């Protein structure tokens, strides 16, 4: 299989990949020193599992088997199927900035850590009989067969996207665990969220380096990503309905995205306080400010309507 053609990563005479690589090396060393080893099999309630129908002649799955609320099941499925598309994410990131050196070392480490998440989540869901395993596998085949293609064609936009996406994924896992009502499930989701937090810190700090290196370019990239953000799992079958149920439950809604994802990132980057920008950067900050005001209004409208929303039951 041929590798993707590298996408543009220069701005004038600045080679962004080369300029940022010392920061990649430092953040990778920090990550390796900080990341805690963990083992998915220790979070699985093996003694509570039962054989399914099929070659083992066990019991077919029934909705009554699941101990989890419907919205939590939706969130777990969305989280899992998003993690399942790791081969496409690896391919996309490799094409953007993973060709050699510290960038490639980081990409391989990130991929190895992310692969644990899908393994652990799927095994937990099967052991708990939390979701329909046949539907889950059919949805996985559909989603992974469709693949994922990044809409961001340069390094600043790609870095800004993975920064926001990792933060959003961290919160989605963490909030799902808190809502599941299962101490073991909460421990597992918290463990996965801790991985995602370290990944977010890696990308966030590289974006901070980029803002120092090319302020206008990275300010525009962060603004573009925030204003047009979609989760990588938006192609999952039934995503819109599932996302609506998840939002109404309070696991992840507009207010969550604003308060637990965007505001902490913007505060850490001190983006809204940045001075000395050129016209492109100033225009981007103005656009970002308007977007945040609109998000406030949308979150308030959603809060007012959410109690009256009637959604189709989970099947």
UniProtKB/TrEMBL annotation:
Binding positions for Fe cation 1 per the UniProt entry: 83, 114, 117, 196
Cofactor(s) listed: Fe(2+); Fe cation
Residues bound to Fe cation 2: 114, 166, 196, 199
GO BP terms: fatty acid biosynthetic process
CDD domains associated with the record: Acyl_ACP_Desat
UniProt KW keywords: Fatty acid biosynthesis, Fatty acid metabolism, Iron, Lipid biosynthesis, Lipid metabolism, Metal-binding, Oxidoreductase
Gene3D superfamilies according to UniProt: Ribonucleotide Reductase, subunit A (1.10.620.20)
GO molecular function term, any single one: stearoyl-[ACP] desaturase activity
Protein name: Acyl-ACP desaturase
């Amino acid at each position: 299989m041929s590798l993707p053609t590298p996408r543009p990563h220069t701005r004038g005479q600045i080679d962004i990949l080369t300029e940022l690589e010392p920061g990649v090396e430092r953040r990778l060393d920090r990550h390796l020193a900080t990341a805690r080893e963990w083992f998915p099999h220790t979070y699985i309630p093996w003694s509570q599992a039962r054989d399914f129908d099929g070659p083992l002649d066990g019991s077919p799955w029934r909705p009554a088997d699941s101990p989890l609320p419907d919205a939590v099941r939706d969130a777990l499925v969305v989280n899992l199927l998003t993690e399942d598309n790791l081969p496409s994410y690896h391919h996309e990131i490799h094409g953007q900035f993973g060709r050699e050196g510290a960038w490639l070392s980081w990409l391989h480490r990130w991929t190895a850590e992310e692969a644990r998440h899908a393994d652990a989540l799927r095994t937990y869901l099967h052991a708990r009989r939390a979701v329909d395993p046949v539907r889950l596998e059919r949805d996985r085949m559909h989603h992974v067969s469709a693949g994922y293609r990044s809409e961001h064609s340069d390094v600043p936009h790609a870095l800004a996207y993975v920064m926001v996406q990792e933060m959003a994924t961290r919160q989605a896992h963490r909030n799902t665990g808190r809502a599941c009502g299962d101490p073991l499930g909460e421990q597992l989701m918290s463990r996965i969220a801790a991985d995602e937090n370290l990944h977010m810190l890696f990308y966030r700090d590289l974006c901070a380096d980029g803002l120092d290196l090319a302020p206008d370019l990275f300010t525009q990239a962060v603004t573009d990503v925030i204003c047009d953000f979609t989760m990588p799992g938006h192609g999952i079958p039934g995503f819109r309905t599932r996302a609506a149920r998840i939002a109404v439950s309070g696991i992840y809604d507009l207010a969550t995205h604003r308060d637990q994802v965007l505001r902490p990132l913007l505060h850490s980057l001190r983006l809204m306080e940045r001075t000395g920008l050129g016209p492109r950067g100033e225009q981007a900050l103005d656009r970002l400010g308007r977007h945040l005001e609109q998000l406030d209004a949308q979150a308030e409208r959603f809060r007012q309507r959410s109690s009256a929303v009637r959604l189709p039951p989970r099947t």
